[in-house]
Amino acid sequence: RYLSNIYLDSFDHEMVSNGYRLTRFADDWVVLCKTRNEAEEALNDARQILSKMGLTLHPEKTRITHIKWGFEFLGYKIKQGKGLKLPRHKIKKQPNFMNIYAIPTEKSVKRFMDTIRDRTKRKIPLSLFELIEFINPVIRGWGNYYRKAHVRKLFNKLQRWIVRRIWSHRFKRWRNMGWKKLHESKLYSDYKLVNLISLIPDLESKVASKG
């Protein structure tokens, strides 16, 4: 990663000097353009600059797309939506006039769920405290990375799923009513389970009692 940042520094400077709005992390980059023609020119210039450096673009990972269809970048799916129909007094953030939003990619969500699933298998001999200590870093790390994206519904869904995974590990089957002995609120207050919802900046204070 660090070597690619150093090596591609000249690529950044040349693209920016040509008037393009470039965003790059390691060898992943995006150029924002106003028209299709500008995008094609940017792609052609990028090919020429990289060619002089002895590099080529990956044919399957390089494409021109419209923001309405979206694109994936650094684990995010970024696209244009219809926007939220909220009364003006309920809008607490700056207006998003273009209705651009970002969500975790399906691949990232699947990888997160696979990790939690692997760590909460019923055969793993951990106490409840140990189990939650085992999964908390995963929840906190993944949640903090996406906490400022459009994730409220997704985080709610995933948090309920995580709780069911814990019940399943603790009582072998979460539908066996054993969960009534271990209410969800106790997982947060007594066992310090990280709550994905509490990581969302504008919801932190509302769920502090659960975090």
Automatic annotation (TrEMBL):
Q: Which domain of life is it from?
A: Bacteria
* Pfam families in alphabetical order: GIIM (PF08388), RVT_1 (PF00078)
Looking up InterPro entries in the UniProt record yields: DNA/RNA_pol_sf (IPR043502), GrpII_Intron_Splice-Mob/Def (IPR051083), Mat_intron_G2 (IPR013597), Rev_trsase/Diguanyl_cyclase (IPR043128), RT_dom (IPR000477)
Which stretches make up the Reverse transcriptase domain? 1-78
Recorded protein name is: Group II intron maturase family protein
